[in-house]
Specification:
- It is a single chain.
- The chain has one domain.
- About 25% of the residues lie in helices and about 40% in strands.
- It contains 1 helix and 4 strands.
- The N and C termini lie far apart (about 40 Å).
């Protein structure tokens, strides 16, 4: 049995969410990431060509679990 850390679970959730988002917008051409100092994802920006379509902002709890994702 594999033991997953909170980060592993969060990254699996992020991967699944980005796959779902990408399948909705089939015209995505680029994903751009920014990272927090602790290695967690801070933002994900989706592009169509040079046009930014949306940004996802990730908020993390102190224990390393994902608290929320906001789209702007």
């Amino acid at each position: 049995m594999t033991v997953w850390s909170h980060y592993d679970e969060a990254y699996k959730a992020i991967f699944n969410a980005t796959q779902a988002l990408a399948s909705v917008k089939t015209d995505l051409t680029k994903l751009e990431f920014t990272w927090n100092a602790d290695g967690t994802i801070a933002t994900l920006k989706a592009f169509k060509g040079s046009e930014a379509l949306y940004t996802l902002t990730f908020v993390w709890n102190a224990d390393g679990t994902l608290q929320s994702i906001a789209r702007s």
